[in-house]
Specification:
The protein is α+β, with helices and mostly antiparallel strands. It is built from eight helices and 13 strands.
C-alpha cells in the first residue's frame, strides 16, 4: 500500500535533497532561497499526491464520490433516482356547510408554506366533506403530510370550506437518491444498487435481476423473490418501501408502479406477480423493566423498530441458498431477537419478555411486523 506523506514530511525531504545536492546550502536556515523553495516543492508534491489518492478512490464504486459514482452507475445502465413529489387521490378533505367545488389546479398550503395542487376537479352539493386529489408542488419528502394537518385554501375553491390533510395522509414524496456511505450494500442507495448490479450480472430473469429491476423504482428499498411459487416459470416479487409506508409494505398504487416497470424489463416468457407481504403483527408484553422510565421505554422501542427493519423478512416456499439472501424461503421471527433488542436499549438493566411466549410463526407471503408494546409492572 502506498502511503501519502504529510506536507511537513515532503518539505523535510525537499530540504534534505537540497542539503545533499547543493554544496554550501542549508535549507533549514531562514532566510535563504532554498528554505523557501523547499516549502514550494513540498506543497506542489503534496498536491500531486493528493490528486493521485483522489483518482485511486474514484476507480472503485465502493469509494467513488457522488459525481464519479454516477459515471460508474451509467456504465451498467443505472442512474440516480430523482426526487418525487408526494401525492394522494384523497389527499385533502374539504369540510363545508354548503355547496362546494374545487377546480383542477386549486392550491392548498401548509403553515410552513408547502403547497399542494388539485389534480382532478371535485364538487358536492350541501353540507359535508369532500375529498380532493392533490400532488405536492415541491419535490421530495418535504411534501409528505400526516393526516389532520390543517391547510389554508389559496385558490380554486368555491364555497365556504375549511381544508385539512385527509385520513390517509399525503405520501410518496422522495428526496433525490443518496449515494450512500463508502462500502455500503444498502439497496436504498445508489452505491448499494451499483455494487449489487456489478456483483450480480444480468442473467435473463434470475432472482438477482428482479432485485435490480425493482430497485430502479423510486421508493423501493428491499426486495424478496420467490421462485416457482405458482409452478414452473412463475416468480412472485415482494418489493418493500421503508420510510414511505408502515413497515415498508407498499399500497396498491405503489405495487402498480413496480408492476409497470417490471413489465418493461422482465423476460417475455416469465410469469411474475408483484405482491405485498401479509403483515403478521407481533404484540409484546414487557414486565419488570428496570429502570422503568419513559426514556428507557423509548430507547427500547427504537431498538425494536431497528430489529424488525434489519431482521424481518418475507417468508416463502423457495429454498435458502447462500449468496442469495433475498430469496423468500421458509422463515420465522425469533423471540430471542425481541429480547435482545430490548436488552440493547440504552439504560436498560433488566426486563422480562412475557409475550410472545414463543417464536412467531410465518407462512408463505407473511412478514413479521411490530405491533403494540405493553409495559407491565
Amino acid at each position: 500500500m502506498f502511503n501519502i506523506s504529510t506536507l511537513p514530511e515532503l518539505i523535510g525531504r525537499a530540504r534534505q535533497s537540497f542539503n545533499a545536492n547543493l554544496r554550501g546550502a542549508d535549507a533549514y536556515l531562514f532566510p535563504n532561497n532554498v528554505y523557501v523553495s523547499s516549502k514550494v516543492i513540498g506543497g506542489q508534491t503534496k498536491e500531486i499526491m493528493d490528486f493521485a489518492d483522489y483518482i485511486s478512490r474514484q476507480k472503485f464504486v465502493v469509494t467513488a464520490d457522488d459525481e464519479n459514482l454516477e459515471l460508474h452507475a451509467a456504465e451498467v445502465g443505472l442512474a440516480r433516482k430523482p426526487a418525487q413529489p408526494a401525492s394522494s387521490v384523497t389527499g385533502v378533505t374539504l369540510t363545508t356547510a354548503g355547496d362546494c367545488s374545487a377546480d383542477v389546479g386549486a392550491v392548498f398550503a401548509r403553515l410552513d408554506g408547502v403547497q399542494y395542487r388539485a389534480t382532478l376537479p371535485a364538487s358536492r352539493l350541501g353540507a359535508g366533506s369532500l375529498d380532493v386529489s392533490v400532488v405536492a408542488v415541491v419535490d421530495g419528502a418535504a411534501g409528505n403530510a400526516d393526516a389532520g394537518v390543517s391547510l389554508d385554501i389559496v385558490s380554486g375553491v368555491t364555497g365556504d370550506a375549511t381544508a385539512a390533510v385527509a385520513a390517509g395522509g399525503i405520501k410518496g414524496g422522495l428526496d433525490v437518491e443518496l449515494s450512500g456511505d463508502f462500502f455500503t450494500t444498502d439497496l436504498a442507495t445508489l452505491r448499494g444498487r451499483v455494487l449489487f448490479r456489478k456483483r450480480n450480472p444480468p442473467h435473463g430473469g434470475a432472482p438477482p435481476d428482479y432485485v435490480t429491476w425493482c430497485g430502479e423504482v423510486s421508493g423501493v428499498t428491499r426486495t424478496f423473490v420467490e421462485r416457482r411459487w405458482g409452478g414452473v416459470g412463475t416468480v412472485r416479487v415482494f418489493p418493500l418501501m421503508d420510510g414511505l409506508f408502515d413497515n415498508g409494505i407498499p399500497d396498491t398504487a405503489a405495487l402498480a408502479r413496480v408492476q409497470d416497470h417490471l413489465e418493461s424489463v422482465a423476460p417475455s416468457g416469465c410469469l411474475f406477480t408483484v405482491a405485498a407481504p401479509n403483515p403478521v403483527t407481533v404484540d409484546l408484553t414487557v414486565t419488570g423493566l428496570s429502570p422503568d422510565t419513559t426514556t428507557v421505554r423509548e430507547a427500547a422501542l427504537t431498538e425494536l423498530r431497528s430489529a424488525f427493519l434489519r431482521l424481518s423478512r418475507v417468508a416463502g416456499n423457495d429454498r435458502e441458498i447462500g449468496g442469495l439472501p433475498f430469496l423468500a424461503y421458509p422463515t420465522g421471527f425469533s423471540r430471542s431477537w425481541l429480547w435482545q433488542a430490548i436488552a440493547n436499549a440504552a439504560g436498560e438493566k433488566r426486563h422480562v419478555l412475557s409475550l410472545p411466549s414463543s417464536d412467531p410463526v410465518l407462512t408463505a407471503g407473511d412478514m413479521a411486523v411490530l405491533g403494540d408494546v405493553t409495559w407491565a409492572s
